[in-house]
Write a structure and sequence with these properties.
The chain is mainly α. The protein contains two helices and no strands. The relative contact order is 0.09.
Length: 42
């Protein structure tokens, strides 16, 4: 799936589902940053 296809699919979601997806992505990015931070400290 291309990036544009993903964007098109997301745009077809309801506004509520889009919000939920964006919140999920935001939380996962925070978790990834935390993991990288702790890896750097080891």
């Amino acid at each position: 799936m291309t990036f544009q296809e993903m964007v098109d699919s997301i745009e077809k979601l309801s506004p509520e589902d889009q919000d939920e997806l964006f919140e999920l992505i935001r939380k996962r990015r925070i978790e990834q940053r935390r993991s990288r931070f702790w890896l750097m400290l080891d």
